[in-house]
Amino acid sequence: MQTPNTYDTDKRKLLSTGSHASIFISALVVSIGIPIAILALSNDPVVKDNAREAINFHINVMIYGAILGVLGFLTFGLAPWLLGPLWFLYHWGLALWAVVHCLGKPDQPFRYPFIFRPV
Length: 119
Known about the structure:
The protein is mainly α. It has four helices and no strands.
């Protein structure tokens, strides 16, 4: 068994960043498959933690997007106009923060604030 210091740092950066960056192609529902595949195929515990956290973030973004869509339907488009910028900052801002964190601190898993973690 490898100790945490013996894992390939470049591979760790690539896979951890890939898990979190997959949210940027979230218009495709299959984007959640990227961190799921990384979780299934990687042996690195930090990469697995980052992939699990990215899966949880995907689930949160989908749920909050659905809630915003329902509110938009019920308010004839008013709610997305008011809440859309906040959702955009939440969605893209936190994902960008995670990517930067994974590139800067590859030995520490990123934890998103303000999400629930079913996985």
